Each structure stands twice: as structure tokens, then as C-alpha cells.
Amino acid sequence: MRVGFLQFYPRLFEEQKNLHRIDKLLTDVNADLIVLPELATSGYLFANKDEMKYLSASAKQSRIADFFRNIAKRENIAIVVGILEQDKEIYYNSSILVYPDGKIELYRKTHLFYKEKLLFAPGNTGFNVFNYQEVKLGLMICFDWIFPESARILALKGADVICHSANLVMPYCQKAMYARAIENNVFIITANRIGSDKNRSSELYFTGASQIMSPKGEILASASIDKEEIRIVDIDPQEARNKNINEYNHLFKDRRTDLYSELSTYRFSQKNE
Ligand code: ACM
Q1: Structural domains in the chain?
Q2: How far is the CA of 113 from the centre of ligand 1 (A)?
Q3: Average pLDDT in the 116-139 region?
Q4: pTM, whole model, 2 decimals?
């Protein structure tokens, strides 16, 4: 299976320009699956919800959905891309999986980062995996990486390849993915963006260095920190299926779920600080 990422520079508020760039970069792409960054059509750094209105779109019935349907069909590829989703009056930081036949699956970012909390509703889809060419794809978005539960749930549900759309601003994720890949024995494609967003007196710089990691923690492709790049590698998704570590240990069967219940019931309180 040929999988890859498109690392590029989405321009804040400039949807037409972004779509045009994506269209161009994905022409004659020759892959099965391409992952794009978070909020790839709109940019990231909104000051308020009014600014988001005209850039937002329904995940499945919209100009944005149709734009990606057309490319997925034309190139015969699956695309995972971060979008600014509007559902009724609510905004979600979402990613969609667009199949070559036009079907679309949706994930809404679970763990909102920094001032995203002022603008977006936290995702309510949970972590789900979707079939594509007999391979199971799991979706997560950017800051979800710092919660190991995100990748773990996807892997427990059978994900072979985690499609991780990102707008990273901190420098830790790429190294952390080494642990996420090994502890779950999965492939992880982190598609980050480059450049900066400036809005009024705020500015954020994004860190590039998109990567594809194997279940053994090998970096199969790694992008620069500041250039637009499309990278594609051949993977064997079967490598993600064998969760045995040795003849005695299994990544999932050895989990002591009888001792883990606090993971879902424990609530952090100020007393602990
Ligand atoms: C992030 O979640 N965009 C850092």
C-alpha cells in the first residue's frame, strides 16, 4: 500500500488559494492514501467565531466535501484532511476520510489545544477505525497525540495505520510517536503544516517535520521543517497485525485491565497539585 503525507503552507482565511494549492500538489500523486494537515483549507489562528463562519463547512455536504471527493476520484486515492467543520451552529476541528467513490467518514478532535477551547466544541465522535482496501485506518488530530489513550483506543479497535493530521507548534510530537508506534505496533502518518498564522497581535509558528513511522519505530519518511513536500512510501499493513512481542508477551493480551480502571474513573483535582 502506498501511503504518504502532504506537508504544505495553508494561508489563514484564504480558502480558494489553499484549495488551489492542494489540487495542484495532489495532481498525479500515485498513492493509495494521502494525509493532509489539520485545518488545511482555512488556516488555524482565528480570533473569534465570526471569522470562522465563512470558512466552515459541513463535513459531508459542502463545497469542501465535494472538492476532496473530486480529487479522491480523479486520483483514485483516499484522502484524510483536517477541516473547519460546522454542524448547526457548532464548530468542530475535524478530519474527514474521503474515499475514491465519494464516501466520507468523520472524526472530531477530542482534545482541544490552547485557545481552540474558546472556539470549537470538543469532539463527540470518539475514536473510530474505518476500512479501506482491507486495511483499517484510525484518525486523530494534532494534540490528541499527548494523550496515549487516543492511539491506544484506535489500535485496540484494530487500526493498522493512524492518520494524524496536525498543526504542531511544540517540538515533542515526532519523538513521542516513536513510543505510540511501538507500544501499539501501528504505522503512524503525522501530516504537519509549515509557515505561520498571524492574526492581529497574535502569531503562531508551525513546525513541519511531518513523518511516517513504522510499527517498529523506523522513520520511513521525514520532511523538512519549512518546505512544502509530498512524501509517499510503500508499506505492508500486515506488519501492524502481529501484536506478539515474543512467545510469552502480547501487546494487548498482557494488558492488566483489571488494574487499569482508574484510567477512566480517576478525576484530577486541585488537591493533587
Ligand atoms: C494543536 O493541537 N494544533 C497543537
Answers
A1: 2-243 (3.60.110.10)
A2: 5
A3: 98
A4: 0.98
